[in-house]
Design goal:
globular, 4 helices, about 110 residues, single chain, mainly alpha
Length: about 110
C-alpha cells in the first residue's frame, strides 16, 4: 500500500491504492495479471464515484497537482484501463488482441 492516502472525500477508495499507477504500461500489466473478479470489484467501487471524482479533479490544475490528488487521478486512469475488460470482454486480456508488451506509449 502507498504511504500517503487519498483526498478526504475519497477515503473509502484507499483499499484500491495499489491501482494508483503512474504509467499506462504499469496499469495495463496490472490489468492483465489480475483476475476478472479483482477487476470487477475495483470497477464496481470506482464507477459510481466518478461524477464526484471528476468534479473534484477538475478543481486541480494538472501542472500543480498535490500527491493525494494525483493518486486519485491515477485511479481514474486505471478504471479507464480496465473498463473494456469488464464492459466488452469479461476477461482481463483483449480477445484476439495484440501482445500489449509490444505497445510502447509515447508521451510528447
Amino acid at each position: 500500500m502507498i504511504e500517503s492516502d487519498l483526498p478526504k472525500p475519497f477515503k473509502d477508495l484507499e483499499k484500491y491504492l495499489d491501482w494508483s499507477l503512474p504509467t499506462e504500461r504499469e496499469r495495463s500489466a496490472k490489468r492483465q495479471a489480475s483476475d476478472i473478479g479483482v477487476l470487477t470489484e475495483f470497477y464496481e467501487a470506482m464507477l459510481p464515484r466518478m461524477d464526484d471524482v471528476l468534479g473534484f479533479l477538475s478543481e486541480h490544475p494538472l501542472d500543480n497537482i498535490p500527491d493525494d490528488v494525483e493518486r486519485l487521478l491515477n485511479l481514474t486512469f486505471s478504471l479507464a484501463e480496465i473498463a473494456p475488460a469488464i464492459e466488452n470482454f469479461d476477461q482481463a486480456n483483449v480477445v484476439n488482441g495484440y501482445d500489449v508488451a509490444r505497445f510502447n506509449a509515447v508521451h510528447e
